[in-house]
Amino acid sequence: MRVLIASKNRHKIKEIGEKLKTLGIEFCSLLDFDVPEAPETGTTFLENVYQKSSFYAEKLNVPVLSDDSGLVVEALDGLPGVHSSRFAGSKATDRENLMKLIRLLKEKGLSESPASFVCFMMITFPDKKGLWSEGVLKGKVIVEPRGGRGFGYDPIFVPEGDTRTLAEYSTDEKNRISHRGRALDKIINLLMERVR
Ligand code: IMP
What is the domain partition of the chain in residue ranges? Predict the structure, then answer.
């Protein structure tokens, strides 16, 4: 079986691809095809992964693995959520998104809030059947960014049981506990059950 990873992000393709490879599953990615971009207009993570994987599975006739993730902040009623990558505007940088989040917390007189990183993954097969999984990393967001590693909201996210931000973790350490790693482990298990 060959699975298409519905992403052009090399870091993501490597992380997911390495796991598939250890199970003897071949993979390719959107970097190998010239296809239009799938719509991503859902109001939930699950809607978005469904949209993405069914779009490419139909177009390319292969099993497609898609993912969608973001940060859910309790004090902001779940924002930025599905808007995480464009919270401060359609072309916003990671820094601008993070600064907007800090500003909104400060406007509420808060220096932190419980929060979770959430990741949904879905594999859709050409027969339109699908498998999906969810991974969650619980913690809190703070208003003083720390650390130079990672990306996105890592500098303001402190995982439960720690005092460091995710931007102070090594890549391996982050991958072991991350929402994406957890969703990936779950969907791989589901996939193995299906092909066994
Ligand atoms: P994507 O669905 O993986 O592209 O993630 C959407 C957005 O969520 C990213 O642009 C980041 O702003 C945020 N995000 C997702 N995962 C992480 C993470 O592990 N660390 C920091 N930010 C993340």
Answer: 2-195
